[in-house]
Specification:
single chain, alpha+beta, Cytidine Deaminase, domain 2, nine-stranded mixed sheet, two-stranded antiparallel ribbon, 3 helices
């Protein structure tokens, strides 16, 4: 699946999309989530991996809080085993709605991740997986811009 941003094509690889399908918030399931990992070139952001929820995360039907220590272990592992090519790109989580949109808590979370963490790029991505669709956005430290899907 490919999304567009003025500077980049954002490509979400099939293995990541399949992982998202496994965690859709059907029935009365709790929200789930993790981190996005991948590669960045001059014109392309490729999301190659997404972490699965861990036993250290906390969640409810309408909230998800990712454990920072387990996410850092996953990030370090992927970075070191790719010779620095695979980096942290952002966050993903689920919502129990057909077409998801970010809550004020989601917007604050991505802003905090940007401000409080050492990141490799000048942006972070946020994906919210809904029942029928996904919300994909690009955060540049100032604003969170929803991205348009250009192909499946």
């Amino acid at each position: 699946m490919i999304y567009a941003h003025k500077h980049y094509k954002i490509i979400i690889e099939d293995n990541v999309l399949n992982l998202f399908k496994n965690f859709k918030q059907t029935g009365r399931k709790h929200e789930r989530g993790g981190i996005l990992l991948g590669e960045v070139s001059s014109k392309e952001i490729r999301i190659k991996r997404a972490s699965i929820p861990t036993v250290f995360d906390s969640s409810s039907r309408f909230s998800f809080n990712r454990n920072k220590k387990s996410a850092q272990i996953i990030t370090d592992y992927e970075y070191n085993n790719s010779n620095g090519k695979i980096i942290y790109l952002g966050e993903w989580h689920t919502h129990p709605e057909k077409k998801p949109s970010p809550s004020s808590i989601d917007c604050k979370m991505i802003s905090n991740q940007f401000r409080k963490n050492k990141i490799n790029e000048w942006f972070l991505l946020m994906i919210i997986v809904g029942l029928d669709d996904m919300y994909v956005s690009f955060y540049d430290g100032k604003s969170n811009t929803e991205l348009k899907k250009i192909t499946n």
